[in-house]
Amino acid sequence: MSNNPPNQIKRVRLSISLYLNYVAHGFGLLILSQNMTALGQSWHAPLKIVSFVISGIGIGRLLAYLITGYLADKFSRKFFVYLGMACYLTFALATPFAKNVYFAYFLAVLAGIANSALDAGTYTTFAEMGSQKSNILLKAAVSLGEFILPIEVASLNGRWFGISFMTMAAILLVNALLLAPLKFPAPQQKNAAVSAGQQQVSKKKLLATVCFVLYGYASMALMIWFTQWVTMFGQKQGFSLASSHLFLSLYSIGSITGVFCLFAILGKVSGQRLLIFMNLAASSAIAVMLVSQTAWLTALAAFVFGLTAASGIMQTGLNAFMNLYPSRKGLATGVFYFFGALASFTVPIITGVLSDVSIQLAFGSDLFIGLLASCLGLAINWALKPAEAKQAVQVKA
């Protein structure tokens, strides 16, 4: 074993710092929506306008993912991690003091750019460390931030709302100091020699690329679709308001449980096969919810959906996509998450139109997305099977 203890310690320290950034990112995802009333008062704007400002985060992602992904392969990964931290720090420090909607919208766009820069630098860094399984745990770090923030906001109890923003800023500042002395791994270079077998699968590689890009959209849409409509669907099915909210809570518990289950399984089961199994299981859970007449069965299905669709299966798809382009990991990340951001922008519009027909249709159409994700997983598995048989990908924790 050539890994000496000092190097291993540095890898662990680097991993912890990268996870800390995603705890702050968990704050960033919810911090505007958790402080909507206070922000509206500060900007002298109604809640509808505050909601519009929140949409700026999605615009920032759409604007930045392709650019940061492409440039992450040209410059150091550390630069993009620090760029994401700097953008998030500016957002956290300035938003409580913003006095108009225009500046606040600019800061929200900056938060979206921060998200894309962090993804471009972080996912690729874990891949270069030979630790793509660790990408799955980033979702757990985000969930931790999303868990802490609402508790902190609720505990402020009339005190200045900006304290939650300052907590986010403090995490980033402390982490910037922890990260400064650490070296990031050098990008792996693609082997110049291309075998005849690799040339033969070029068309399949193109098919896999198209499917991965579409999977970036479908895997994000699957989760957003569910979380946006499950509570209203539960009420329309005749369940109580408490039960309907419980479905979303059980989805979240399933998601966190699934992250650790997936982390344990991933080294033993092919990532491509997991894309098929997990999305089929998620589709089955939605089908059960559509026909269920009992709260306990619907609650169980909501948990199973979180366990499968929101367990990190999107990150598993990204890992496999990066393996397909070992010298273009940053660009692969940018393209994959660009389509994920496109889903977060378009799904509310699509489901809003469907809800005019019925809430059941708006929620139930997620079954189509789950089946689409399953079919994409099947196509990816078929396209990559020859390469997989030749060279088994070993993923180290």
UniProtKB/TrEMBL annotation:
It is a multi-pass membrane protein. PROSITE patterns: MFS. Coiled coil: none annotated. The chain crosses the membrane at residues 12-32, 52-72, 79-97, 103-124, 136-154, 160-180, 206-226, 246-267, 274-291, 297-322, 334-355, 367-384. The keyword Transmembrane helix applies. Belongs to the major facilitator superfamily. This is MFS transporter. It comes from Lactobacillus nasalidis.
